[in-house]
Amino acid sequence: MQRRTFVTAAAATLAAPMLHAQTLPSGPVRIVVGFPPGGGTDALARVVGQKLATMWNLSVVIENKAGAAGVIAADYVSKQPGDGNTLLMAHINSHALAPAMGLKLNYNAEKDFVPISMVGVTPMLLICNPDQPAKTVKDLVALCKANPGKISFASAGGGSAQHFALEMFKLRAQIFALHVPYRGSAPALTDLIGGQVNYCFETMTSATPFVKSGKVVAMAQTRLKRAKSYPNVPTMAESGFPGFEATVWYGLMGPGKMPPAMAQRMNEDVNKVLAMPDVQEKMEQYGAEDGGGSIEKFASFIKDEQQKWAQVAKAANVKVDA
């Protein structure tokens, strides 16, 4: 009896690490990114992917499938097996804004994915070039009300996070302003600096180099709390718009058929990665904060974002070709 107990206990001890190992993919892992190399989504995916490769002793590669503001990549990953070999660096566009606009997607943003972990939340900045007359939110609202439809705001494209932030501002401030969509942040920033457009909501990642060089002025930031890297720039909430929050966020997801145990193991490991001092340092460089946490927390966050932006899309009549 004692020998049988010992054998059973020994077998259980040996089985434990095997079961733990089975919660990881059996081969190379691809993290699919819906944007070109060099952008914020791609950069964060590479930071996390490199650490996971070491931790898992597996090859982890970043695969860029750019197009349709991340929708093409999300569609691709939604059709993959749930073996953990293909993951998605999900983005606000693919999982909140595209559904909010009622686009005909070939995937269900909730049912076709398994949330793994939030990687980071980045504020946007309300910016202008130094020649603009209004450099506070209060003055900008007054300027727009005095010149209805004449004050222009650039965005990275119709239906982008930058566009949605503008529409939320217009609704809350009850102003009429001109939306000028561009094909990405780079041309929008070029024209903002050149004075072809007056103002812009832009991601902190894209805007920061121009703020630091003095080519643009940061008037406000769009999270409820000030980012560590911008301690002296007021939030929109502090500038007269309580509860105003418009962020860009990134998170790791798997296809819908991924086993819960695998998602949980990956969540634990991503949390370990995000707690590493060198990773935290890199995240701060991109203005990405508040990554990590439980799967349930990430899933709840996505649901809240979907509801919030669906309300804005309906109230402002946001269309993808706007």
Describe this structure in words.
The chain is α/β, with parallel strands linked by helices. The chain folds into two domains: 2-122 and 247-316, Bordetella uptake gene, domain 1 (D-Maltodextrin-Binding Protein, domain 2, 3-Layer(aba) Sandwich), CATH 3.40.190.150; 123-221, 3-Layer(aba) Sandwich (D-Maltodextrin-Binding Protein, domain 2), CATH 3.40.190.10. 44% of the residues lie in helices and 18% in strands. Strands 1, 2, 3, 4, 5, 6, 7, 8 and 9 form a nine-stranded mixed sheet that branches. Helix 2 (40-56) packs across helix 9 (260-274) and helix 6 packs across helix 11. It starts with a helix and ends in a 6-residue tail after the last helix.
What is this structure's SSE topology?
Blueprint: H1 2-21, E1 29-33, H2 40-56, E2 60-64, H3 71-78, E3 86-91, H4 92-100, E4 113-128, H5 137-146, E5 152-155, H6 161-173, E6 178-181, H7 185-194, E7 199-203, H8 204-212, E8 217-221, E9 247-255, H9 260-274, H10 277-285, H11 295-316
Parallel strand pairs: 1-2, 1-3, 5-6, 5-7
Antiparallel strand pairs: 3-9, 4-7, 4-8, 4-9
Helix pairs in contact: 2-9, 4-11, 6-11
Named at the architecture level, the CATH assignment of the largest domain is 3-Layer(aba) Sandwich
What overall form do the CA principal axes indicate? globular
Percent of residues in beta strands: 15-25%
Helix/strand order: HEHEHEHEHEHEHEHEEHHH
Quick one: biggest sheet?
9 strands, mixed
**Range of helix content:** 40-55%
Supply Rg: 22 Å
Cα distance, first to last residue? 76 Å
Number of strands: 9
Classified by CATH, the class of the largest domain is Alpha Beta
Low-confidence stretches: 1-21
Number of domains: 2
> What integer is the average pLDDT?
91
CATH topology of the largest domain: D-Maltodextrin-Binding Protein, domain 2
CATH superfamily of the largest domain: Bordetella uptake gene, domain 1
Helix count equals: 11
Strand-pairing-aware structural class:
alpha/beta
